[in-house]
Predict the 3D structure of the following.
Amino acid sequence: MTMTIATRARLARWACLILLCLPALSLAGEPLTLHTADGVAVYGTLSHAQPQGRSIALLFHQARANRHEYDSVVPTLQKLGFDTLAIDQRSGGELFGGHNETVARLGTSADYLAALPDLEAALAWARAQHYARIVAVGSSYSSSLVIVLAAKQPPGLSAIASFSPGEYFDDKNLIKHAAAKVTLPFYITTDPDEAGNVDEVLRDAHGANIVHYQPRVGVHGASTLIAARDPGGWQANMASFTAFLRGLPAPAH
């Protein structure tokens, strides 16, 4: 059967579309449900690096938000060889145009500190998958929670990144006391208007494990890595964060 020129052109266009879609398909995430120690089902998205590595970044969102805070950040982490697990904590909402499935199923959003078991469940899941390098990334209130998590020195956690932490809880010494106990690689930053919050968090923490990045331009939380949220600063801020990740010890073989 002889193909017409128009048919060949249509096939060529379809082939190009398929090739363009393949990277997106390979980076697409899959749903994952975690179960916390206190019996809550927490919903998330697992995305694999290409090729799949032995490292994972656990991504925790800010207040009134959901896992979609990190949608535009995930491809950059994948290129660095990190799988990612972004979850909907039980304290969150519809910010960033996403849907917090955990909150929806519970019927209400919990307070900030109540979400700590959600982070612990994500870490436990990553450990069970035998990841050699696990980095916990927090935004706003969850950036304070990753400090609390790291202060407990749980097995398997390799590093934390804290975007806009503060003393957001009733105990106004909780985070600064926790920060002083963190011994693993610890990246911490916030926007210039909130620099005092980070200074307070680091009041008693002075170890060489701390990378305190002070951006010229920034916004609150991990949104400082997103072009649409921080058009004037996201590139420099992403460069700083990825430099920290590249500087972490390689996964053990």
The domain at 29-246 is CATH 3.40.50.1820 (Rossmann fold).
